[in-house]
TrEMBL record:
It comes from the Bacteria. One of its GO terms (molecular function) is kynurenine-oxoglutarate transaminase activity. This is Aminotransferase class I and II. Keywords: Aminotransferase, Pyridoxal phosphate, Transferase. Its cofactor is pyridoxal 5'-phosphate. Pfam families: Aminotran_1_2 (PF00155). Residues 59-355 form the Aminotransferase class I/classII large domain. The keyword Transferase applies.
Length: 449
């Protein structure tokens, strides 16, 4: 074989890092093993595991944060509901790019979308007695299920692969009709598959969320990054698709991590519909001994207990980036279009060498190129493919860890750089050659068995 790392070395490092089962490893575990192999050998990995931004942080945010620090704002506790400048900017941003009206008071800063979902899971599952489960339209972000484990909240999930378009209605209703689903969660564009829910599907989700009184938690971490469409032009169509056009039961989670490459500063927004924000729930009032109104309870009685607000100066940085985007001074879509180019080049290398794209279509068109894509290889499960790719110096995560029922791995484009394309091509040519030999040996063995 012409693999980069021996099976024995990979197994030894996995044991050293206390990773019991590499085929079903978490993102963090894969990262540990890949980093340790690089450290021991000096051989670079093609890092497709962690979805960390691979572009410089937006300078507008950096300068605004510096200005806020110089003004002495670091000395004061931030308001639990967020600084007014950010809340107003968020409301304008949502209007400019989604064409949805959400008042500033219902735009709530959070320390990343992970904090937003953690708080929202609590609020949504406690608002109505008996509605205490979360439904995931998978594949999805594994950390959200880890949050539910911490909170002791139950969940249901299904892989949307075979339920695109109108079939989604019956599948959703089979869960919602039981009466115990408090929230519906998905990302759009999707992590890990990069599929995008279309208007027909969002309408179905919205209608059923209203009928069964479930809150839709729409994760827009990759906002405007469906590069097949000309999103990102303030106050001009096309506007970003959202369930918010079809229900008042929604929380939109908008993060600075990807669109502004601002992940290190941990800042996002939970944009709650005004109707939901103002709705009173007796169960919340009884539990928290407050008004029981969803928005204020979410902010003061839940989120504040988790993070005590967001770093004040980071909020000013986010506010400035949103304002400059609305004015057209920042074109954040073009700033991150590099991910589209990387995905296109990486996909070609893999498919030229026998790989397939697992989630390859939306309802009406081919899936686009962007931050993530999915890979399969004939005859291999996702776990087997993850492990085999490790031997060739390529790290990924198995789709099985994301709620997918398809066999394959997630590939992230963010850490790819120019010097690594020929390295990836060489390694995947070797992968194909070696596995063609293995497959031929198996065919011959079976022929004479």
């Amino acid at each position: 074989m012409s693999s980069v790392f021996s099976k024995e070395l990979v197994a030894d490092v996995a044991r050293e890092m206390k990773v019991a089962d590499l085929q079903n490893a978490t993102i963090g575990d894969v990262l540990l093993v890949a980093s340790r192999l690089e450290e021991l050998t000096g051989i670079p990995f093609i890092r497709m595991d962690q979805g960390s931004p691979g572009l410089p942080a937006n300078k507008v945010g950096i300068e605004a944060e510096k200005k806020a620090l110089d003004a002495g704002l670091g000395a004061q506790y931030p308001a639990a509901a967020g600084v007014p400048e950010l809340k107003k900017a968020a409301s304008r941003f949502v209007k400019a790019f989604i064409n949805i009206d959400i008042s500033p008071r219902a735009c709530v800063p959070t320390t990343g979308s992970v904090a937003a979902s953690f708080g929202a899971f609590i609020a949504c599952t406690q608002r109505i007695p008996g509605k205490n489960k979360v439904l995931f339209i998978d594949p999805g972000f594994p950390i959200q299920k880890s949050q539910l484990r911490i909170l002791g909240i139950g969940w249901e999930y299904f892989d949307i692969h075979d339920f695109r378009g109108e079939p989604l209605r019956a599948k959703l209703e089979s869960y919602l009709s039981k009466g115990d689903i408090a929230a519906i969660v998905y990302s759009n564009p999707n992590n890990p598959a990069w599929i995008c829910l279309e208007e027909e599907e969002l309408k179905i989700i919205g209608e059923l969320a209203t009928r069964y009184d479930a809150v839709v938690m729409e994760d827009q971490a990759y906002f405007c990054m469906d590069f097949r469409h000309e999103y990102g032009r303030p106050y001009q169509p096309p506007f970003v698709p959202t369930v918010a056009r079809y229900t008042d039961n929604y929380i939109l989670m908008l993060s600075a991590s990807k669109i502004f490459s601002y992940a290190g500063q941990r800042i996002a927004l939970a944009c709650i519909s005004d109707v939901l924000f103002d709705k009173q729930y007796p169960a919340l009032a009884e539990r928290y001994e407050d008004s029981g109104v969803f928005g204020p309870t979410f902010i003061a009685s839940i989120l504040y207990m988790i993070t005590s607000g967001c770093t004040a100066t980071t909020q000013y940085g986010m506010a400035e980036m949103l304002e400059r985007s609305v004015s057209g001074e920042i074109n954040f879509v073009e700033d991150v279009r590099e991910y589209e180019r990387r995905a296109s080049r990486m996909k070609k290398i893999f498919t030229d060498n026998g790989f397939t794209i697992v989630y390859d279509r939306d309802v009406t068109q081919q899936v686009g190129d962007g931050f993530f894509f999915t890979l399969g290889y004939p005859g291999m499960t996702g776990g087997e493919l993850l492990l085999e790719l490790m031997y060739y110096g390529v790290s990924s995560i198995s789709l099985s860890t994301t709620g997918s029922e398809q066999q394959g791995v997630r590939a992230c484009t963010s850490r790819m750089r120019e010097a690594l394309y020929p390295v990836l091509e060489e390694r995947m040519k070797a992968f194909r050659k070696d596995h063609n030999i293995i497959n031929e040996e198996l065919r011959m063995k079976n022929r004479f068995a």
